[in-house]
Design brief:
Structural class: mainly beta
Main location: secreted
InterPro entries: Avidin, Avidin-like_sf, Avidin/str, Avidin/Streptavidin-rel
Keywords: Biotin, Disulfide bond, Glycoprotein, Secreted, Signal
Number of strands: 8
Low-confidence stretches: 1-31
CATH superfamily: Avidin-like
Pfam family, one: Avidin
Shape: globular
Number of helices: 1
CATH architecture: Beta Barrel
Mean pLDDT: 81
Strand content: over 45%
CATH class: Mainly Beta
Strand order of the largest sheet: 1-2-3-4-5-6-7-8
GO cellular component, one term: extracellular region
Oligomer: single chain
Radius of gyration: 19 Å
Order of helices and strands: HEEEEEEEE
Helix content: 10-25%
Distance between the termini: 42 Å
Amino acid sequence: MFKVEIFLIGIAVIYVLGKQEGKACSADKKDTCDPCGITGKWVNELGSVVEITCKLDSPDRNSTGEIIGKYNSAVGAAKDYYPLSGRFTIPDQDPKNCIVGFVVAWNNEAYGNSDSATSFTGTYYKDTDKIYTFWILTRYKKYTDMWENSNIGNNVFTRIPIN
């Protein structure tokens, strides 16, 4: 019986610590585990899908943190999901919104290395529940052809409702 109690206490401690690690939220969002408001699945106007999770750096720094996730592009020869990582910050002047930046290196097991990466930067507005981004896609080119290595554009991501 004693071993079972210790095991259950250990599981409870792991569960509580796991729930708290990176999940502590700012004072106005303490009941949520989504400090930046964008954790979830999103689609842009081209049909590309992004899945994002936000994690605060620490409870002491309750307005900035890490973005991790995956991206499935509906354009080009992309297949499967590509990992993404980035950062967010919650503006002091409007804490319901969020400034975001994340990068996708176009290299995965399904397709291999496409010698390119895309950086997205933008703002999540809670009132519209959309993420408005600008992006820069950079492809590897030799130094003499560097003038043609980047494309710039924008996307609006809309949340995909959970069924």
